[in-house]
């Protein structure tokens, strides 16, 4: 499976494509950071990010897109810009029929390093080790994009299986409830019939 990982941001938006193989093997395909000028209009900056994301989707043909979810930031303006950048990427993916999954920073850190509290240096180090990279992806947004793709490759199959199991359990519970209701209805009818005969 091929995944496009996106670490959204207005000034720097990390993009990383990773292929997943058998087991937990992963291979880096491409990584880069899209930059937009801080003095440009917001609409122009978002268009630049959208255009870049669309070019990557058309060129590398990912089967899914993993985007970092805006979780908690003290700077509201930064959080808004991050969310908007993630939104235009999700829209570009939706136009191509690609599934988009948002992962929190702690989910990504836990998947890649084993700890949801790992710092950026630890994430970058593990990304390099897992992908066999000799050169550190720079800036950190690039490494984060690769980490998002790895996180998705490792977490999504488990999430899908869990969702399928929950759906099956819900269907079984629904059928069981329907059978109980039908049995209760039959018992009620039988009781009424018995009382009618007794009269």
Task: Give a verbal description of the structure.
By secondary structure, the chain is an alpha/beta fold. It has helices at residues 42-60, 76-95, 105-113, 120-131, 140-198, and strands at 2-7, 12-20, 26-35, 64-68, 100-103. 33% of the residues are buried. The model has no long low-confidence stretch (mean pLDDT 92).
TL;DR of this structure?
With 199 residues, this protein is an alpha/beta fold. The chain has helices spanning 42-60, 76-95, 105-113, 120-131, 140-198, and strands spanning 2-7, 12-20, 26-35, 64-68, 100-103.
Provide keyphrases for this structure:
199 residues; alpha/beta; five-stranded mixed sheet
Oligomerization state of this entry?
single chain
**Structural class based on helices, strands and sheet pairing:** alpha/beta
Mean pLDDT: 92
Helix content: 55-70%
| Main sheet strand line-up | 3-2-1-4-5
């Amino acid at each position: 499976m091929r995944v496009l990982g996106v670490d959204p941001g207005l000034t720097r938006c990390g993009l990383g494509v990773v292929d997943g193989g058998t087991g937990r093997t992963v291979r880096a395909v491409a990584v880069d950071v899209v930059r937009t000028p801080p003095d440009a209009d917001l609409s122009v900056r978002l268009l630049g990010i959208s255009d870049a994301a669309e070019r990557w989707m058309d060129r590398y043909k990912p089967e899914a897109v993993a985007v970092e979810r805006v979780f908690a930031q003290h700077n509201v303006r930064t959080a808004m810009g991050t969310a908007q950048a993630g939104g235009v990427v999700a829209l570009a993916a939706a136009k191509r029929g690609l599934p988009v999954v948002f992962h929190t920073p702690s989910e990504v850190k836990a998947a890649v390093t084993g700890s949801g509290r790992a710092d950026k240096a630890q994430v970058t180090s593990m990304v390099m080790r897992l992908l066999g990279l000799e050169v550190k992806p720079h800036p950190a947004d690039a490494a984060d994009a690769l980490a998002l793709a790895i996180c998705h490759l490792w977490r999504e199959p488990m999430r899908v299986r869990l969702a399928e199991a929950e759906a099956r359990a819900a269907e079984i519970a629904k059928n069981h409830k329907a059978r109980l209701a039908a049995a209760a209805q039959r018992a009620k009818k039988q009781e009424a019939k018995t009382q009618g005969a007794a009269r």
